[in-house]
Amino acid sequence: MSLRKVAVVGAGMTHFVRRAKETPQELAFKAVRVALDSCELTLMDIDAVCLGTAPDSFDGIHMNGEYLSQAAGAFRKPYLRSYVGGGTGVFVPIQGWYHVASGLFDVVLVVAEEKMSSYYPHAQAAFLTIFDHTIERPLKPNLLWIFALEMNRYMTTYGLSKADIARVSVLHKRNAADHPCALLGDPNITVEDVLQSETLAWPVQRLDVSPVSDGAVALVLAAEHVARRITDKPVWIEGVGWCLDTAYWTNRDLAYPRYVEMAAKMAYEMAGIKEPRKEIHIAEPYDPFDYKALHHLEGLQLAERGKAIELYLNGDAERSGNLPICPSGGLLGVGNPIAAAGLMKVAELFWQLRGEAGKRQVPGNPKRGLAQAWGDLMQVGTVIILGR
Amino acid sequence: MFSPFSINFESPTQWHGDLPVTSRYTAGIALERFFIALRDEGKILGIRCSRCSKTYVPPTLFCPQCLTELQEFVDVGLHGEIYTYTISYRNLDGSLSNAPQVIAFIKIADGGIIHKIEGIPPHQVFIGMKVAAVLKPTAERSGSILDICAFKPFG
């Protein structure tokens, strides 16, 4: 199969906020407008639109993809919404990639939007019905149970302490203090702050978790011959991968995300990467919870099992370190409007690899980065590798 | 030969669950202006895209055709023309309604509003009929699409 080279040529995002006055359409429009302006294209240059948004229940609009279409620039254009739960934000650029790589379209808009503040009183209730209606819902489950059970298994398996895991939250929230669109950046946060925050479902405490947020992100993808006319700094999509594990979580190893490993291996093979720890210069693993970043770094083969924490303890994870992790500030710091948060990570790689990340810029002219998201029924890994 | 699994359809044991959803919506940047003008000034606003020569009613923050941000709100008046309509004989729960209700797409500028038609027997309504919005009294308006009671024949 011959595939065309595909570049990211433009990116834009809104602020991530707690409660936006804008409608979901208005959020999507604002991100798209910035992305188009960033590469000086108009809607006439766009051949097709790929949209990502998580469950309709967040925005409170059934068929949210159809509602968002005109704001995403899809007026009278080929358009499709993709959905793999929380993994959507990294899946939607993969969808955009195969739209272009296949030869079907030359220039594609990739848009992700989420307005979680619509869900009342709290967005977590939107997840109630993901639990099995017969064997779990009678227990009146809370979304946090999933993470608390997984975190406990993960930390116990490898003998990690809460204080060590809190280092993840501290680094990401400090990084986010340099992001102009961030909701929860804090340059002064400490491990003590995390450990003293309210316990939600032990071992998960308030500052172990990313915030419910509203926001949107957009990218412009182009085939090689068009990309070189649009910009002299194209950032290439070198590899993509995705994979789903079993639908039922008690059939799964909760200490190690095998599905993330398989998605990563698919992407590494496509990118010709043999030694990810040497060949990936920036990683944006999915971090809705602090332990999740560690869990995912191990699945991504960027650390040995149970050893990802060492990247944080020895300074490698910092922007100036050997493997900068979430230089954006991640979901823990920038915010977590589900699909938009995943795409924010891909936009961050685009800005970092072009040397346009401002105060967040990773030094040393990084050449290759990886972004990953996770979701569905805690069973999907989505991975994308960008390089220049 | 195709051989399907047999499916058991004999009175399965069942129980009821619900999908509890409450949403709080915002009108957004453009529609908030629309509803404030309707409530406080009794006006219907549209928004103009000079590039595409279109006036959208209700107003949107952006032009869906060219994706330019729009700012030129215009008073489009309270009159429109019936573009199409239906006569509804049933309530939402399927029961027969006491009085058939006329629901119409009222064309205003390059857009339109879906609303009720009142003040005329249903069988006399026709496509192309000129209609005007009937607003609630100022003191009763809350900034909702129901600040318009209905549209009625005009002229």
Gyration radius from CA atoms of chain B, angstroms: 22 Å
How many domains of chain A? The number is: 1
What is the CATH topology descriptor of chain A? Peroxisomal Thiolase, Chain A, domain 1
Report the sheet-strand fraction of chain B: 35-45%
Measured distance between first and last alpha carbons of chain B: 70 Å
Shape of chain B: extended
The pair of chains with the biggest contact is:
A-B, 29 and 23 residues
Number of discrete helical segments of chain B: 1
Radius of gyration of chain A: 19 Å
User: What is the percent of helical residues of chain B?
Assistant: under 10%
Shape verdict of chain A? globular
> Which architecture of chain B would the CATH scheme give at its second level?
Beta Barrel
Topology pattern of chain B, helix = H, strand = E: EHEEEEEEEE
In the sheet with the most strands of chain A, the strands line up as: 3-2-4-8-1-9-12-11-10
Q: Low-confidence stretches of chain B at least 5 residues in length (pLDDT < 50)?
A: none
H/E element order of chain A: EHEHHEHEEHHHEEEHEHHEHHHHEE
Going by CATH, the architecture of chain A would be 3-Layer(aba) Sandwich
Q: What does the main sheet of chain A amount to?
A: 9 strands, mixed
User: Please, what is the CATH homologous superfamily of chain A?
Assistant: Thiolase/Chalcone synthase
The parts of chain A where pLDDT drops under 50 for at least 5 residues are none
Strand order of the largest sheet of chain B: 7-6-5-8-9
Please explain how this structure is put together.
The complex is a heterodimer of chains A (388) and B (155). Chain A is α/β, with parallel strands linked by helices. Chain A has a single domain (6-119, 211-387), classed as Thiolase/Chalcone synthase (Peroxisomal Thiolase, Chain A, domain 1, 3-Layer(aba) Sandwich), CATH 3.40.47.10. Helix content of chain A is 35%, strand content 19%. The relative contact order of chain A is 0.19. Chain B has 155 residues and is mainly beta. Chain B has one helix spanning 28-41, and strands at 22-23, 45-49, 54-56, 72-75, 79-90, 96-108, 111-117, 130-135, 148-153. In chain B, the strands form two sheets. In chain B, strands 7-6-5-8-9 form a five-stranded antiparallel sheet, with no helix packed on it. Chain B has a three-stranded antiparallel sheet with strand order 3-2-4. The A-B interface holds A 20-23, 25-26, 29, 32-33, 36, 42-43, 57, 60, 70-71, 73, 75, 117-121, 125-126, 128-129, 133, 137 and B 17, 19-32, 60-62, 64-67, 69.
